[in-house]
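Notes from hallway chat w/ T.B., transcribed later so I don't forget. T.B. wanted the structure written out for a chain they're using in a teaching module, and asked if we could keep both sequence and structure tokens in one place. Agreed to drop them here.
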Amino acid sequence: MKNNTTPSYLDFLNRVKSYKSIDIATPGNILKSFPLVDISSLYPGAVFITDYVNNRYLYLAINSNKFLGYSDSFLLGEGPSFINSLLHPYDFKVYNEKIFPANIACLKKYADTDYKNLLFTVNCRLRDGKGKYCALRLCSSFISIADDGTPLLEISALSDISDYKSDVKIVHLIQKYNAQNKISLLNRKCYLPCVNQVLLTKREVDILRWVCEGFSSKQIADKLNISIYTINNHRKNMLRKSQCHNLTELLHNAVNEGLI
């Protein structure tokens, strides 16, 4: 029987422990037979297979002596909980509350057909062994799910993208491969994890709210008894802090995060 709820990531981790473990083929056979893509084509820093029921990695390999300053044997021994602890708190909040539930909702939609052909991609920041946050891309697919659609086994690849990713915007993609291995995009959504936490002052939030309500810079300046120049400076500062390209993008993210 399917479970139609879409839990947060933390709720899922607590609940999946009660599921029965499944018989698992050797990791090498999983990698060879998995129908989605050749994992090596993703140029990963690390490839791992996660057993959610037992909260462990069944397989973990890195393409150098260390990944983020950690050896494969250390990461394999520490398991998923350690990797989760390295996630930037704001990125983890977005993943827990927004991205993972969206993945589960899509997974349940295709649970009876070709869920193995779904590819879930998201960028995030992980803390390396020296305490520095690095930008990474996480590509995942589910190997096995329970009768109710709950994921049990997942294969993932982590790639370091710090050289060309310097902003904090999170891009979440859900894609599907067909029989000819062609990709179709099912969903794309962007999140700005810091908008609702620390970036904007109360005055800036007020200004943003009034812009959303249709007030011009002059009207907002009159409300606050300040100059248009000051209002425009606030707008520029908000774009700089949030690393949004324009005010429309900032407003979209602020509304999505419940800021205004």
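Follow-up for T.B.: The chain has two domains: 9-191, 195-256. Might be a good example for the class.
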